Amino acid sequence: MKKTTLAVLLLSGILAAPSAMAFGKHKKHHTDGLNQVGDTCELLTCMAGKLQGDTQPACQPVNQRFFNVRVFTPYYNPEATARVRQGIFSSCEGTPVNKGTLEMIIQRYGRSFQE
C-alpha cells in the first residue's frame, strides 16, 4: 500500500511539473516601469535636454523613469524596450513637432538598460 501511494504521488508530481513550468514561463514576460512614467511631455523635455548634454538636477528623476521602463521576454529585450519607450511619448501633444528629437532619443537611449 505504501509503495503504491508513493508511486502515485511521485507520478502525479512528474506529470504536474511540465504544466507548472509552462505556467511559470508566461509569467516571466513582463514590462517594468510603465506605472511610473508620469507626465510624458515633461519626460520628452528632460530627455531632449539630456540628448543635448543639458542635465538639469530636476530632470534626473524624470530621466530615470524613462530608463526604468524595460521589457523582459523572459530576458531583457532591448528592441522591445525601445519600441515601448517610443510609444510612451505618443500621449504628449509635442511629439509630432519634436519627431526628429524623439527619434534621436530612442536611437541613443531607447535600448539602454540603465542611464
Task: Briefly say what this structure is.
Keywords: Plasmid, Signal. By secondary structure, the protein is mainly α.
Describe the structure.
With 115 residues, the protein is mostly helical. It has one domain (30-110). 60% of the residues lie in helices and 5% in strands. The protein has five helices and two strands. The protein has a two-stranded antiparallel ribbon with strand order 1-2.
Order of helices and strands: HEHHEHH
Estimate the global geometry from the Cα principal axes: globular
Helical content band: 55-70%
Ranges with pLDDT <50 over ≥5 residues? 4-26
The figure for the number of domains is 1
User: What's the count of strands?
Assistant: 2
Beta-strand residue percentage: 5-15%
Keywords: Plasmid, Signal
